Amino acid sequence: MPELPRELRIVVRPYATALPLGFFSFGAGMLILAGLGNGWLPASEQHTAGLLLATFVFPLELIATVFAFLARDTFGAAGLGMFSTSWLALGLAEMSGTPGAHSRAVGLYLLGFSFMVGRLALAAFLGKPLIATMLLLAGVRGSLAGAWEFGAPHSLEVVASWIAVALFGAAAYGGLAFLLEDVKKESVLPVFRRGSSRDSFEGDLAAQLERIPDEAGVRQTL
């Protein structure tokens, strides 16, 4: 049996934070969904809206997902990854569907997706309340939109669209806050970190390296 080395060197590549890109593209997507639901966009624009979701929002969210994984941000990567392909799926559904028509398949997808996003929100409240609140609102929005696809009153879709407008504003704030935080290397706009999330940003390097052997990519199995 070969002798194990006494020292193990771990090289971490310096990647930029993926959160500003993820937040800004997420906000753009929510504004498009809001326009479809509250009447800002006529039904005849549904295919164009779907094209924008699939060709603009999806690629940017996917890029943010990849770099979140490379930066070892498991939670951020999970959330961004869930939404990245969601934008593609919704975009293709809007492009191929009949303008203004219901789709029970899309409705079931939205309900299931919203349930999973709700689980992410519960985990996020432990360290990132701002992101958790946005995930919770996104889950509520998706649930209302899914119920409308199953034939619920149109008022639910209108409510869902105005929640999407609120998410657009929250995403604009969050993207700017994380961008300024990365540029200034300090909190400029509050993002309300707490627990281990706050320690990872405000604590010293030694405290963050204590559990390196137990992290994914370092330990032998996931």
Q: What secondary-structure arrangement, pairings included, does this model have?
A:
Elements: H1 19-38, H2 46-70, H3 74-96, H4 104-124, H5 129-149, H6 154-184, H7 196-202, H8 205-209
Helix pairs in contact: 1-2, 1-3, 1-6, 2-3, 3-4, 4-5, 5-6
Radius of gyration: 20 Å
Helix % is 55-70%
Number of strands: 0
Q: Major β-sheet, in short?
A: none
Q: From N to C, what is the helix and strand string?
A: HHHHHHHH
Span of the ends, CA to CA? 24 Å
Q: Structural class per helix/strand content?
A: mainly alpha
> What characteristic shape results from the CA principal axes?
elongated
Contiguous runs where pLDDT drops below 50 for at least 5 residues: none
Strand content range: under 5%
Number of helices: 8
Average pLDDT: 85
